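Annex B, item 7. Sequence and structure tokens for protein A, then protein B.
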Amino acid sequence: MHPKKKAILLALCISVLLMLAKFIAYFITHSNAILTDALESIVNVLASGFAFYSIYLATLPKDTNHPYGHGKVEFFSAFLEGTLIGIAGIIIILKSGYDLLYPKPIFQLFEGATIIGATGIVNLIVGYFLIKTGKEHRSLTLEADGKHLLTDAVTSAGLVAGVILIQLTKIYWLDSIVSILLGLYIIYNGYQLTRHSVGGLMDESNTALVNSIIEIMQQNRKDPWIDVHNLRAQQYGADLHIDCHITLPYYFDLNEVHQEISGIDKMINGHTEHKTELFIHADPCLPACCNYCKMKLCPVRQEPFRAEIKWDINNATKNQKHFDQ
């Protein structure tokens, strides 16, 4: 089984067990704050279930209907998880607000806090494991699920602290206040996760990723690579797709052009952690390129080389040669 599938299947099984433990804690205590954590665990189980399915799809090979692969389903998985988290937070706030107006007795808070504390520790360990595995295999779904579990662990820690405070002070309406605060925190994290996934679904530019590609090309720059522009990068699951225009000497024949483009392909794939597919369009140089072209013994140079234009995100991503700026 693929390591990503093993990781998410482990998370799913653990999420089911922790959900049962949290509901046991709620039935022991009748605490709204503990119910908050139990309801979020339902989201954990649903999200892990869909995450398992999305990872199954993402690991399928490309086919006729999906020439870029199935990796984008991971953005949808993260979106669904963020939405479920937000809905859980809203339900928690509504339930806690009602019980703040119409309070009911709570019991055995220390026993409940012990159970919740133990589940928080487990979520912390599993969350870090999922994030580590997600980064190793470049899976947004695993990272999103891991971050969700870390959020759950933080929620559990705050819950335990709140329950202990309630037990010590005997101010039982604090139970609903703690629950409302945790609900707001859960909604915020759901928004963050949803925002990131929507950006991926709409091919929002990944500035850090584009910067790293441009830096690799700049550091390994060769004289025939006169100009690079209209550079764009899209990530589909673990795969990265890059397209750009490269300006080469116009007198290069087709074999030389192919050799330079193949060199760029090998260079980027040798320096990035992603499996990268490149689509490179070759442009012929123009006389206006001469002043920043470093080609030695160029037979058609019309003016001397003056200075190299350093590639950065401001000029390499524009759809124009640098002399047009």
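Protein B:
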Amino acid sequence: MELVPEVKELLIETEKTLKGHARRLFMARTVQALGEGGQCLAERELGWNRATIRKGQRELKRGIVCVDAFSSRGRKRSEEHLPNLLTDIIAIVDGQSQADPQFRTNRLYTRLTATEVRRQLIAQKGYSEDELPTAETIATKLNELGYYPKKVGKSQPQKKLPETDAIFAQVKQINEEADANEQILRISVDAKATVKVGPFARGGKSRIPTKAADHDFQPTATVTPVGILLPAFDEVFFYGVTSKVTSDCLADRLIDWWERARERFSQITTLVINLDNGPENHSRRTQFMQRLLEFVQQYHINICLAYYPPYHSKYNPVERCWGILEQHWNGSLLNSIDTVIQYARTMTWKGKHPTVELVTTTYQTGVKLTKEAMEAVETQLQRLPSLEKKP
């Protein structure tokens, strides 16, 4: 007996789409339908294994199923042998990663190579050389966790101060100590680029037909999102500010947030604030330092300012929220302030919606202390001795 080419091809292709018990039953029933000599024919014409056919025939005859342990086959993933591996990789890499400077993607870009991550796993986390996977595997794990080495537009800073690496190391140490202490709460604060309100194309895509203005004329209003992120809780607070963001504006947002949160965090004695070196909040901004000193005196809580190096603002954790927000509303027309606020409220960060408020207070620019007044404030500040002239 011979099989015509069309039937032979159909049987071979069908068998390849199946696996395990279903595959064996198909082979057994096919051989049964071929009649006497079916096993030899299937082996010769279709390339089927006789042992597999017989196993399927026994299952078909007795009505039992041989369980296929596919999950136990092959090499185990590294994290199955080392259950803390992924957590330890994140602990090493997260503080050395930045958001996409242009907010075109949610990816994070890390300063560390896979080889360096592997070295730090051995030095910091106590892994041995033999038990860790190769640098190539570590690179794969970094990609799976969302950390990429790709260089994008501004990923290379315009300048790098000699103190940059020392500042990064100091910020990393401060953040780790804060996250490990139940009496310290770490937050990340920053303002996003100002959003023009009007029928402007924002470069996004939409499945709903949307027509934007052909020219970017004068906006009807502007809104500057100010964000406060609690990294340990994956909670985000957004404030849509219609005025210019100043030192007083940022200080007021900190007060608004703390009034809302301080009962919940009654055990907290110190706030660690991650910041960039923006003109409104750097450590030599006299009005900003004065307002923070007033905050400390009013609420009887210590504040530690952990600044990221100049020209490295995208490493500030709250910056990652801006990429999500930008992609969330990019395909829509933000033609009113209310639309901006509603889109911010419907965004999700780590599965949670942010708390969003509109701030219409008008803030005066150019407010600063006299030299004598700032000298009095300086007596209440403690700067790092090795970086006293840098934020």
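Comment on protein B: The beta strands are 97-99, 108-110, 147-148, 184-191, 195-197, 221-230, 235-241, 270-275, 302-307, 355-359.
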